[in-house]
From TrEMBL:
Name of the protein in its database record: TauD/TfdA-like domain-containing protein
GO molecular function, one term: oxidoreductase activity
Pfam families reported for this sequence: TauD
Gene Ontology BP annotations: antibiotic biosynthetic process
Domain (TauD/TfdA-like) ranges: 15-252
Amino acid sequence: MDVSSASFIPRKVTSAEEAREVVAAEGAVVVTGVADEAAAVALGRRIMGERALRCGTQFEATKAGGRREAMMVDAQPADSRGRKRNFGSAEERMVAHNDGFAFGDYAPDHLFLWCERPAARGGDSFLIDTARLLDLLAADSASADLAHFCRTVDIDHSEPNYPQGTYAPIARRTPSGRFQGRYHPYLAPVEGAAEAAHWAFVRRWETVVNAVRDTGPMFRAQAGEMICVDNYRVLHGRDGYNDPLRKVCSIWGWSTDAVAVPDGPLDIVVPKIPLAS
Ligand SMILES: [Fe+2]
C-alpha cells in the first residue's frame, strides 16, 4: 500500500498565533524570520502560549557535536537482549523519531528546530504524521491488524540499558487528550510469552515508518526558519549531509499537555529517567 501521504511538507507562517493553530491542526509548521537562538526559544514559548511550562535549547546539531556524542554512545554496552545504542553519523539519513524518546513520558511534547545555517547540500528534513499513518494502515485489510496492535498493545519504549519502568502502546491518547504515536529504533515487545508474536508487529511498524520516510517528500529549512513540531504526533528526521558549517538548534518545549515534565535538562548521551516528583 502507498503510505507516502503520511509524510508532509509543513506550511510557512510568520506569527506565533498562526503557528500555534497550524501545529494543533496539522502537526507542524515553519515560522520564517527568526533572527537568533534566543529569539527562537522565546518564539517557542510564545507558540505554547499560556500552556508553556518549560522551553530551552537541548543541543546544537552540528557534524562535530554529533560525532562527539556518537563516540560516547558507541562505548556503551549492548543490553541483555542484544540491543545496542547507536547515534549514527551526519552522512546517513536519520531514522524517523520523536525527540527525547529515551525519556518516555518525560519527552517534550513540542519540538522547535531552528536553522541557523543549512548544509550547502543535503540535510533536508522530513516529517511523518503518525495519526494519519495509523488511519491509513487501519483502512487497509492487509495492515488493519498492525494498526490495532499499535493502538492497543503495550510495548517497551525504553532505550537499551535505560529502562523507563512503564509500558505503553505505540499510539495512545494522553491524559490531556493529545494523540501520541511513537517510533524509534529500539522499540521492543514486553518480555514474556507473547514476545515473538509481538516482535513481528514491531518490525512491521519499523518497515512502514521507513517506507514513509523514503517515499514521502522532503523539504529544506533555510537560515532563520524554525520547524515547529507536535513531538507527540509527528516523527521527524533529516537526510544525510557533509557540511561542517550546518547548524540547527534543537529546542524542546513542555506544555501543560505533557504527560510528565522534567525538573532540569535531559542528557541524551546518558538518558536517565527523571525521578517522579
Ligand atoms: Fe530529533
